[in-house]
## 1
Amino acid sequence: MKETKNGCDLTNCYLCTHCINDWKPAITAHKTNFTVKKGQRIFNEGDAVTGIYFIFSGKVKVHKRWDDEKEIIIRFAQAGDILGHLGLGNDSTYPVSTTAIEPTIVCYIDLPFFESSLQVNTRLTYSLMKLFANELQESEKRMRNLVHMPVKKRIALALLTLQKQFGVTATGTINIELTKQDMSSFAAVSYETLFKVTNDFIQNNWIASNGKSIKIINEALLTAITLDLKND
């Protein structure tokens, strides 16, 4: 990562939007902005926690080792999101890794100042508590899906989740470009399974694909698959 003067304008990031205005000069004095190249790690699973990151622009994958050769993508983050907060526990290490999937700018706040921010700004503390609760609920759903959900249903749900989070472009494609490997890691299926199932979706005219771009053509049908309303 490379330090830059471009980035956080004290209006859009998670920290700034949940702090009182009188605290913003302190944020200015303590923040450092970094540019992150596509494919570059922001922090690694197991690293000691030194601070918290806030995304000003770009998109980031949050991922975790599954075994020695595989990883699972927990979620994707974008402008306005927070990274590194899962490392605030007693272990003091980041439990996940984060990697930019496009050129990204992040704002870094060291841990002592972030902890001071939590003590001063009750709205920030309350918001972070709700964020932890929501992420725990989503994590429990995801683990349940990994155990019980068939692969076709997982892939349909992954596509719908991405469209809900990132929206669509002017041409109707999901507004995030992912490699097939990242897509399979997010759906928690093998690359070969993803290739086969997405080809079936394309042949049935449920989705369209052009390189890394995917367009959902029949959202109602994909939704029906996730709800077990569509028979094979």
## 2
Amino acid sequence: MSSRLSLKFQVPVVLIALEGKLGKASCRSIKNVSIYNVLEEVKEELVRYGGHDLAAGFTIEEEKIEKVKRYFMESFSKKTRNVEEKKKYNIDMELPLEVVGESLLQDIEKISPFGSENPHPLFLEKNLSFREIRKFGVDQRHFNGILVKEGKEYPAVGFDLGHRIHLDTYLAQSFDIVYYPEKVNLHGEKMIQIRIKDIIIKDEFYDIFIKS
């Protein structure tokens, strides 16, 4: 249950079940928010604990639950706020998918390698739809699919974005994406793939888009 809630709402989740005077907790978190580190910060209040960054568990005495709950809420609020700030991207330009090709990839390659000091150029494209989508990975955190615009199709992949896609509604929705093109080898064939860094359903807010 904690895993499904965390994946759906993209927030850390702690569920505690009482057994007598002890509470046993199941914890799930999101990328860049370590649930294990938070448990380390309150370990003196816990009977026992264990796990890793994204999944953990602990046992706690009933009378200490409220105190630890308040600490969790304050800590998670700060950490998730920092994560949201890190999600913002500097977009180099609005670039329609139809101009993506070998020439553009060669121009991008000229300014590589990319890293923290030289971030990959990012582009914005609007009003796209998907012909198909498949989720994959642990908890279906990632997805790949076929983007469609004006009858043309483009293979695409999005890592840690599976929670943004609803398989029962995506065919009727329109999307804006932050992306960059990349050359990949799919099924033995070299092709250009659209690497999606963020995706927005058209009726959502655009506060992650910051044009440079």
## 3
Amino acid sequence: MSILGLQITHIIFDLDGLLLDSETIYTQVNTELMKSYDREYTMELKTKTTGMKMDDAIQTMLEHEHLVGTVNLEEYREKYLDLLSKHLPESRLLPGAMQLAKHFAKHKIPTAICSGSNTFEFDAKMKNQKELSDLIPLHVLSGDDPHVKKGKPEPDGFLETMRRFSVKPESAENVLVFEDSINGVYAALAAGMHVVMVPDLRYSSPSEKCRDKITLVLNSLEEFKPEITERGRLLMAVMKSVLKITHVIFDLDGLLVDTEVIFSKVNQCLLSKYNKEFTSHLRGLVTGMPKKAAVTYILEHEKLSGKVDVDEYCRKYDEMAEEMLPKCSLMPGALKLIRHLKAHNIPMAICTGSTKKEFELKTQYHKELLDLISLRVLSGDDPAVKRGKPAPDPFLVTMARFEEKPEKAGNVLVFEDATNGVYAAIAAGMHVVMVPDLTYMKIPDELQNKINLILRSLEDFKPESIGLPAYDRDNSE
């Protein structure tokens, strides 16, 4: 257990997407406006503009979408403000925000809000948040504050906030910033402050440039554990628990090989014949299940049980999948990680809901993957696996089949992309890294604090962060 003690005396919070769930409102408004100009408000564009002053963000969007000269900034702003005035008062507190604000107020830790909002936006968002405003009375709104020349990612907003505390911090290093956006993180680091990032992984994650400089990355403010000293100063202990991981188990579909898109196409094609749709929600519910269990669930969910035979659906499914599955490619970062673990003699296995036939189709052009991971448990037709994911059976059978057995389930790390797989790994008593496709999957609240890491891609995985050997500097795929 390594502990880094920081002497933190002052706290600065961002607002949107950190204390208040207002980012969804901004997304809805910009999506509606961009659509009126035959443009799309993409996650890339959201990432680029989050945290900026309003006019800077609008100008960036117009330039990015080649609308400068076609759409007037003032025209866009007027429509933008009109929509915001209707929806921003609907902003709700995010989990853990009020608890943390009350905690700091109780212990007399000076706190402030530093936001890219202007006064109009801030007042609209805080209309129904009087208690939060009372708990954090210092507000620096760089959207129209004349003393803040440049918005995030520049440090001006945070430096101005530090100057306005009635009791000044001794230095910027005594200030801890809470941020959700990458622009805000850059601004805090440029100001010389420590930063806790609570990113929305759909559009924001710590970049390579600043990942090692962020003090802590959390899934939610609820996860933050402050420790207060007797003198009323915040002593934050950032603890990196070094887990003893000796064995690794990988899921297959959507994690190592890009097959989930194929499954969606096949199911959509089959369900469309019955005037049904294979929705993202339904996809999230069945991902990770063995095929027959998934088909049974789909038919029940769509009220087709008794009208459509499960075995007949499976037969048609197999016919279509057989043509498409051999074309699936490896997911980014998969081969690099597996080569690395092999080089360090970490025992590995694949545990999948596939049948033997499906597995062979998916992997027939991925010989190196098969050579590197010789142990595979295919719960789709393995007689020893009585129940598929989300039950723990597949992972427990896999653990029992390692030639060199783990001392206990707590020494096993599972990589999963599906909620059902995560439930299975946790039920088996194992640690889990989740690499979800957030376009169709929402991670249940009950799992948030039980998952060791949530990543956008296997490329983002740092083995040393969870007790495994670090990549060599010259390591490449």
## 4
Amino acid sequence: MTLTLKAASKAFAAVILAPVAIAGFALFLAVWFVMTITFVGPLVQYCCNQRDRKLLDRSRLCERVPDLQFIRIPHGNNCAGFDLAVRFTRSTTSTTLPPVCIPNGLGASMTTISQLHEELVKRGHTVLSYDRLGVGLSDRNTTGVSPTADDVVKDMEFVLSSVLPPTTKWLVVGPSMGSIVGQYFVATYPNRVVAFLNMDGFPYPFCRRRAKFVLAGLIYKAYAAIIWTGVMRPFISMGIQSWRSRLQSAAFSIDVVRAETNQANFFRNLAHEMITMIDLADKVNAAWGSQSCLELSPADLHTLAHTKPSAVGDVRDDGEWVPIDDSAITDQLIPNYGTIEPAETAQAIASLLARQPQSQLAKTWQTLHVDVMSGRNFDYAGASMFIDDEMKDWYAAEHTIHALLAARGCRTVFPTKAHSDMFAMVQCIADHVDKLSGAIDV
């Protein structure tokens, strides 16, 4: 009944808001047309771009951020001959904790996760964050070709080996798309990772939704095509400003983040990253083999999707973790909240592994320490385009198997947090990294 009322209220809101949305879009087109034909918009964009170039000047950035460097990728990768921006900060207090690598989410740069980078450094971790080709401070992708999944992990391996010996084992923090990058890195370089934090990672089965992601890529290309008119800048700048508390850090001001985002390259590269993400999803799906969520029987998928997490809670504005009585919020988590005990699911996973050939990735995963942070609030703009009930089940099933298949695993659910909210929980994420690191004997 509750779900029916929610659906009805959403439908009613859509009917009421549709005329407002149409009127708003018409107003946007009118403003765009006037600003373009009068050259006011292009002139403003040109002047702002001159300031942006100064903010993004590499020599100035390196003076301000001493641990920022640019590493040239060698011949053999799609981005051979291009420089990737790398921020590598050595711990000055600990030599026993594994170094942390953060492969970012879709289109996200080191500037957007700089707060997390700096918090982990304060806690004694050695931390590396970097920008993939075309992203953030790295060179633009001028090849016209989206990097493949193999390109991405080769680049990641080269960057890691450039700052620490190639025998070093890393703790990988995978936010959103970064979780798929991390999984494929584990599959390709199984001896390079000792622990994995899945930070509300998108499930790799969304390769089944490739048409929608390709469509999103085309929309981003359209944004890139009109950004020279200046009409996008006020909206982008207001959006960035509203996230000031999440994005500004000691190393990178909000102006630097705004300058990155107001470039045509930002949107053009988002389209490339969509294609790269689909390839990563395909490769990770293949790497999991019989243990892939797409290969599970309906019964096994149901069991994994409805398994109780290790903990349910929320993070207050002051960063403090607060447990939640899961019985009070079950309605928010249906259809992918658990009524099945983890011990029962562990038996189901053992049975699954016994009756099917184990993939190499599944074998490697059983040697890792893994934590999973799952945001379960899908009531936000854009979610309905990609995340239906089947996708929610894949989300929950993948996050469950990540935790229960590991040598030591834990899954924490945040029922009130949307996907974008998860990355603002810097203290909580750092707590999870601390917990993982503390359990590892380096």
